[in-house]
Amino acid sequence: MDTFIAILSATWDMYLEAVPWLIVGIVAAGLIHALMPSGLMMKWLGENKVGSVIRAALIGAPLPLCSCGVLPAAVELRRDGASKGATVSFLIATPETGPDSVAISYALLGPVMAVARPFAAVMSAIFSGLLTNVFVRGETRVSPLPAAAATCCTDRCSTEHVEPTGGLGVRTWGGVRYAFTDILDDIALWLAVGLVVAGLLSALVEPEVLGTYGGGIGAMVVMLVVGVPIYVCATASTPIAAGLIAVGVSPGAALVFLLAGPATNIATLGVVGKDLGARALAGYLLGISLSAIASGLALDALLAVWGVDIAVQMAAAGETLPAWAVWGSAVVLTPFFILSLWRDLRRRWSRG
Fold this sequence. Notes:
The protein is mainly alpha-helical. It has one domain. It is built from 16 helices and no strands. It has helices spanning 2-35, 39-42, 50-60, 70-79, 84-96, 99-109, 111-135, 168-204, 207-211, 216-227, 234-246, 251-263, 266-276, 278-306, 310-317, 323-351. Helix 1 (2-35) runs antiparallel to helix 8 (168-204), helix 7 runs antiparallel to helix 14 and helix 13 (266-276) crosses helix 14. The longest helix has 37 residues, at 168-204. The chain starts with a helix and ends with a helix. 51% of the residues are buried.
């Protein structure tokens, strides 16, 4: 019984730390979805050049789509003429980071990780896109992809981007509604799983167990192997990373998980291989793997040089807001969070 209470307490404490920033993040993501014209993404990504790959990463990074939800959007870009390198860059940057994941990273991991994560995500996307362009060089341009390629991990995705209509107030309200329904529906279950996993790690794993083996390239390869095939969104992966760091895994190894986990899963790999080809899939996987490990090694090296202790920043990050703001945020978000969990579980149950 004491163990159960310890797990529950650790999970609740992490939820309280995350909830104010989660509200900020999902609202920002909803507003981006509601206010950004879809044509802005389509017209800059067609050329098989460095510029299109960079633009795809920068456009994709703030969008509120997970690794499954991004598939239809990426396929649509490809159908509209985006190069394979730009498509891969968009596929990686979009789920790896976003306003919600940056906000929760600041709350749970501290300011250094909140900056390092999106920077590494964009660099990873650009590197992978450029590598893909090298791998597919000389291929004959194929005909547009069929709409059937736009599949998702679930029976719904919040990816249909309707061109903004109405006045600014109408669009803003629509973005807020979208944030507390569609976006929260997409992340609620996996965020809950992530918080529970983090609570388990915090309550049950002694720091000494992983402290000795928590850093270096070996630990990063393990994080890569774990992260690539599973489905976990950027927001939900954050409490897991916080739990890993708390029990002795290095910030660099945790960063590898934060990059590889959200960027890929079995469904994404299948769509990339089927619709972009084996060469593009090779560039996609190799680019993510090399850039994630390089980012992890660079982060650990920089932290050692600067003398920064991420664990100390994690402890301080949760103390930056007054208690009334934390509990007020929990009162606002928790009913929506429970409703989103209920809708998601009901959909999964109905699918049998």
